[in-house]
Design brief:
With 232 residues, the protein is α/β, with parallel strands linked by helices. The chain has helices spanning 27-43, 64-74, 116-126, 128-142, 148-165, 181-193, 206-216, 224-230, and strands at 2-9, 17-24, 75-80, 86-90, 110-112, 170-175, 199-201. The strands form two sheets. It has a five-stranded mixed β-sheet. α4 packs antiparallel against α5 (148-165). The protein is elongated, with a radius of gyration of 33 Å.
Length: 232
Amino acid sequence: MSEVQVKESGEGGKNKQKKQTLRVDFTPMVDMNMLLITFFMFCTTLLKPQTMNINMPSNDTVKDDDKQQVKNSGAITLLLAGDDQLYYYEGMPKDDKTGEDHFNDPDFLHLTSYEADGLREYLIKRNVAAYEQIQELKVQLQNQEIPDSIFRRKSKEIYDKAKETTTLPTVMIKPTDFASYKNLVDVLDEMLVTNIGPFAVIEQELGDRYLLYKKTNDGKYLTPEQVAEASR
């Protein structure tokens, strides 16, 4: 609201001169500002949550014989050990069909690193066909040549075709009690960078602990029961 105040001034019988002073009341504007702030707070997304998709192998569409074949030919297991060490092995340490047992073979476990010339280079070699095609799609997406919906659809088609024509790796990530949170984040980043196939974060098995023990000769990876058994 605005208000005009009139002041009269003059001396004796002289003509009086009127002076006008304009005063604007900004009090209603405070209420309007609060309404606008409340409106934008409820209608604006302040932070969009960022999520990472972790694909799990489906138990419904895979037969038992196919599961065993995938385990032996396309499985990659990553063991996140202590002191920023990263180990991996291919296939299964023990094959019930062939009778092969690698639990006592330290060379079955391979040492790599979190650097680009370590885990990333290895995963790209195992997934080179799909990796190159996905990279081309990413360039088109960044150049706004295709929308995100088409990128996701074509990426799925590439993975589905890779499953039929080649052995698409299935990566199992197993952090130990001595791995850091950064180690896990670095591995998950490499999964996205290399456009690998299905991967999942799962717990260690007793055999994985024993493999680390045979490779590093460090008993901290064993359970108390395994320590007692190893000391016999």
